Inverse folding.
């Protein structure tokens, strides 16, 4: 299991107990390392600064006890934002109908970068309609994926606020 996945597995139960889900975990930097934990509320409401503070205190205490990271690091708790990364299979199902950017680990159909409309998930493959047609990309083939900021995404976020 890769390092970020281990940290995710360690902190997820603590965060879930207080109403948050882990979106992504990343350890960045070499000299000044930062452990970034991106969270979302399990009730679907927007993440606030107070939410990040509450989650940070809970996770910080847990990480101090478990001590999974050797050496000094800074903990950063953050919101995924409106144009959030798509990290888990459920993210691709949740945002069907919205535009996304996907980059694959290896060339797929002669290219590594795709932009288009998420059509759904079938047999572990993300379906995307893009400029050259429709493509099915295996979840394990994806290096990075992110929602694109569009008027539709902004309107959906505003509807969710009310």
């Amino acid at each position: 299991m890769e390092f970020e996945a281990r940290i995710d597995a360690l902190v997820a139960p603590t965060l879930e107990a207080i109403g948050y889900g882990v979106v992504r975990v990343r350890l960045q930097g070499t000299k000044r390392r930062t452990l970034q934990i991106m969270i979302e509320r399990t009730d679907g409401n927007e993440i606030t600064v107070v939410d990040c503070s509450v989650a940070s205190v809970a996770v910080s205490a847990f990480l101090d006890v478990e001590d999974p990271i050797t050496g000094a690091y800074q903990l950063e708790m953050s919101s995924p934002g409106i144009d959030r990364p798509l990290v888990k299979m459920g993210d691709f199902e949740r945002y069907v109908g919205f535009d996304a950017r996907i980059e694959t680990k290896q060339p797929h159909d002669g290219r590594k970068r795709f932009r288009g409309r998420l059509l759904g998930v079938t047999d572990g493959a993300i379906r995307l309609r893009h400029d050259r047609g429709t493509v099915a990309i295996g979840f394990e083939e994806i290096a990075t994926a992110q929602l694109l900021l569009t008027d539709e995404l902004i309107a959906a976020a505003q509807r969710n606020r009310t």
Remarks:
- Residues 49-66 form the longest helix (18 residues).
- The two ends are 40 Å apart (CA to CA).
- The chain has four helices and eight strands.
